[in-house]
Write a structure and sequence with these properties.
By secondary structure, the protein is α+β, with helices and mostly antiparallel strands. The longest helix is centred in the middle third of the chain and has 21 residues. The structure holds 6-diazenyl-5-OXO-L-norleucine. 6-diazenyl-5-OXO-L-norleucine binds next to loops.
């Protein structure tokens, strides 16, 4: 074998590092733990804990940092959710989901004949929802933070201003957006240095304009984004690009504290996100069904186990499409019923263990999701825990942004049902609860979740993955609570997804043996393979021993759990 030259050695070191990150699947700590999609951002969170910050401070600092290091999903131009459990076991949530602008209408994506203009709800400035991230992080800090706001925002400013090592995930995106034939000048320019040269792996990436925007947020709090210079520049950008978000939309945006969805599973308490996310309701519905199953006869990954899980998913997604939307616009959603044990009993009786049910193709719809959202989990020495998922919707959102502001806008309007009343078997959903309306929040699948045991956090978990989020979180929770898997195994275990319609089970490649595929097909399931679903970031806490165990999904090679 030839002696490797320097360049090759360098590559091998990088590969070894990734290998190490994957092999070193569990990370331990007893004073705190932060798990996120970027190891450097997790380190930002840990540094905040070491300075005396709590789990909320660490989550906010990590989230701002991810807006710098992981801009495909980390953001200040998008929105998301926080589930927070304090050391006494009291749990709350912060909703910072984007909102439709004041000028939005429920036919804004239709042509004059009333047909959906293909893709229009996901492209152009018309797809951008009023961002919620800065308001959400600010509200979380005002209510539950410990360190000064400026101290929490500063590390992200430093990373943007002084730069950080351009990683391989970023390089892959840069190579994609700079490919010949790419017509998106903003995204092509985004990954270039000040001389206009495409950044290379490990090169220092500085984002001067983003640093300036973050500095205004540091100095003026939420007003540094929703008012003054930043708001003026956002409104000017929208006007120039035929968007409809105005200064008034920004000034009116408020994050909202909401009561979590609460469920239970064999003595554990489950806390997750209420609408406008569908995640918590669907998770609790499915866990209630699982509680009725006899897992002694349903071995892990057997056809029976997967069939039952798929049938639970089918039902929860049908209910999601029919009932859920922004709670401020849908005042009578049957949340208590959907999450009740008695409803689960009725549903459980409908499941035939020998046959797949049939999804009613006259009703519910297809996936609109791509692969970019990001989740982070934090916990501090006192046992305060944060589960935070936020998103731009697609990878790099609308792929639009202003050079003067240095951040990317979401395309979250695509999560609304785009065409009133029209629900196609393989098409879009048109049910009423999630139609576009001014100032309405679009329905989400993000499922930041905390499982409690004896009033203390036991599992902190969440994932990206569009509608698959609900199901990847569900199976991970089940893996830990029912199958007693350690957190890293629960995260890495391959998973399935069923979302009512299309009426099929998507499974992660390598999950199903030919025998299991045959057995599932014999029950009437249609199977479709996919390489990967989700990127889970989780922590388990052994309160008796006072030990945290963190793990991040190998699907995201730059991710990392850091404990101390
Ligand atoms: O809120 C939602 O459910 C979607 N906008 C999330 C999109 C997503 O997770 C895409 N990436 N993996």
């Amino acid at each position: 074998m030839p002696i490797p030259n320097c360049k090759k050695t360098y590559c091998i070191l990088i590969l070894l590092f990734f290998g190490y990150a994957v092999l070193n699947a569990q990370t331990y700590g007893k004073n705190g733990m932060v798990v996120s999609s970027d190891l450097g951002s997790s380190e930002v969170g840990i540094a905040i804990l070491k300075k005396g910050g709590n789990a909320i401070d660490a989550a906010i600092g990590t989230a701002f940092s991810l807006a710098v290091t992981h801009p495909s999903a980390g953001n200040i131009g998008g929105g998301g959710f926080i589930v927070f459990m304090n050391s006494e076991g009291n749990t709350t949530t912060i909703d910072f989901r984007e909102k439709a602008p004041l000028a939005a209408t429920n036919d804004m994506y239709l042509d004059p004949a009333g047909n959906l203009i293909d893709g229009s709800n996901h492209t152009s400035a018309m797809s951008i929802g009023v961002p919620g991230t800065v308001a959400g992080l600010y509200l979380a800090h005002q209510k539950y933070g410990k360190l000064p706001w400026a101290a929490i925002v500063q590390p992200a400013i430093d990373q943007a201003k002084n730069g950080f090592a351009f990683n391989w995930s970023l390089y892959r995106a840069a190579a994609y957006f700079s490919k010949e034939g790419n017509t998106n000048a903003f995204m092509d320019g985004y990954f270039r240095n000040d001389k206009g040269v495409l950044l290379q792996p490990e090169e220092n990436w500085k984002q001067a304009e983003l640093a300036k925007t973050l500095t205004l947020i540091r100095d003026k709090g939420r007003d540094g984004f929703y008012k003054g210079k930043t708001a003026k520049k956002i409104a000017a950008f929208m006007k120039k690009n035929n968007g409809i978000i105005t200064k008034k939309d920004l000034a009116k945006y408020e994050a909202i504290e909401r009561k979590p969805i609460k469920g239970s599973y064999k003595g554990y308490d489950i806390y997750s996100m209420p609408p406008p996310s569908s995640g918590g309701v669907a998770l609790v519905e499915m866990m209630n069904l699982m509680e009725l199953a006899d897992f002694k006869t349903l071995e892990f990954n057997s056809a029976g186990h997967l069939h039952l899980v798929a049938e639970a998913m089918r039902r929860a997604f049908a209910d999601r499409a029919e009932h859920l939307g922004d709670p401020d616009f849908n005042l009578n959603m049957p949340l208590d019923k959907l999450t009740s044990k008695s409803f689960a009993k009725k549903r459980f009786q409908e499941i035939d263990m020998a046959r797949a049910s049939v999804s009613d193709s006259a009703q519910f719809g297809r996936l609109y999701d791509s692969e970019s959202t990001t989740h982070l989990s934090t916990i501090d020495k006192d046992g305060n825990a944060v589960s935070l998922t936020y998103t731009l919707e697609y990878s790099y959102g609308s792929q639009m942004g202003s050079n003067e502001l240095g951040f990317i806008f979401n395309n979250e309007m695509g999560d609304f049902n785009p065409q009133p009343g029209i629900t196609k078997s393989n098409g879009q959903i048109g049910s009423a609860p999630n139609l576009v309306a001014p100032e309405k929040r679009m329905l989400s699948s993000m499922t930041p979740t905390i499982v409690g045991k004896n009033g203390k956090p036991y599992l902190v978990i969440g994932s990206p993955g569009g509608r698959t989020i609900i199901n990847t979180v569900f199976q991970t929770v089940l893996n830990v609570l029912e199958f007693n898997m350690p957190i890293d195994k629960a995260i890495e275990a391959l998973k399935i997804h069923h979302q009512w319609l299309p009426d099929q089970i998507i499974y992660e490649k390598y999950l199903l043996s030919p025998d299991t595929r045959k057995a599932l097909e014999a029950k009437g399931h249609i199977l479709k393979e996919r390489y990967n679903m989700g990127a889970l970031m989780g922590i388990t806490y052994d309160a008796e021993k006072g030990i945290f165990v963190g793990a991040s999904d190998s699907a995201q090679p730059d991710s990392g759990a850091v404990g101390y």
